[in-house]
Specification:
Layout lengths: L3 H9 L7 E3 L2 E12 L5 E12 L4 E7 L2 E5 L4 E12 L11 E16 L2 E20 L2 E22 L6 E13 L8 E13 L4 E13 L5 E15 L5
Parallel strand pairs: 1-13, 2-13
Antiparallel strand pairs: 2-3, 3-4, 3-5, 4-6, 5-6, 6-7, 7-8, 8-9, 9-10, 10-11, 11-12, 12-13
Length: 242
């Protein structure tokens, strides 16, 4: 999706001045599962994302995101939880050391049918506590925490490729926006667009593999990453959640 890069640059050119562009090639391996509790309206969200740089050669990030789901009805659900993220030095402009992050998150998810397809809208708010790096005795260390807010909106659909809907095309886009007093220079955080092939293994488990283009503006607003990523998602949604 190299065509997507100039579109993003034109969209934000009037807001920021990009001074440095870097491109990384990554591999993300992900599990996302929603598991019902005894009351079928309530469920547990379990998520692990192993993100590797150099197409798997080195660490990029580790993300663990547990949460609790509540289904309001068959089309609307809300969730909240906690996330632990550790970002490693990677790419052409690596960080000086690993950076931890503690994060609370809340979201609302709405499902609809339009144009003969199933659509998902997801709005997520995040309260982020990011480790701050300083140099002490010649060593880069994390010696404090910086608080930031982030808004995310995802639009997703799937296009059946077989009559039984076992094979399908998965397509989604998600935009991230930072806000709050501690944000300067990068109110636009990133955009991710994904195109992949999906396979319904059974009634509760799906496998999706495809290409993800991540456009990321680093803090300060002067460094942009255009990351090409091979993404693999194992998704499970057990009966009873809706």
């Amino acid at each position: 999706m190299s065509w997507f890069r100039p579109i993003v640059l034109m969209a934000v050119a009037g807001l920021v001045h990009a001074e440095t562009h870097v491109s990384n090639r990554n591999l993300w391996i992900n599990y996302v599962g929603d598991h019902p509790l005894e009351n079928p309206r309530w469920g547990v969200h379990l998520e692990t994302q192993i993100r590797r740089s150099d197409f798997g050669g080195a660490w990029q990030q580790l993300l663990l995101r547990p949460g609790l789901n509540y289904a309001i009805n068959r089309t609307v659900s809300v969730s909240a939880g906690y996330a632990w993220v550790e970002t490693h030095p990677y790419g052409d402009l690596p960080l000086p050391t690993e950076v931890p992050e503690n994060r609370a998150w809340e979201q609302a998810l709405f499902r609809q049918q339009a144009l003969g397809l199933d659509w998902i809208h997801r709005v997520r708010l995040e309260q982020r506590f990011l480790g701050q790096i300083s140099v002490q005795d010649g060593q880069a260390v994390v010696d404090g925490w910086r608080y930031e807010n982030r808004f995310r909106y995802l639009l997703r659909t799937s296009v059946p490729l077989s009559g039984d809907r076992r094979w399908y095309l998965a397509l989604w886009d998600e935009v991230f926006v930072n806000f709050g007093a501690n944000v300067s220079g990068n109110h636009f955080d990133q955009n991710r667009i994904f195109l992949g092939l999906g396979w319904r293994i059974n009634d509760v488990t799906r496998l999706e593999t495809g290409f993800l283009e991540q456009t990321l503006q680093r803090r300060g607003g002067t460094v942009w990453e255009f990351n090409q990523t091979l993404a693999i998602w194992l998704l499970s949604q057990w009966p009873g959640r809706q």
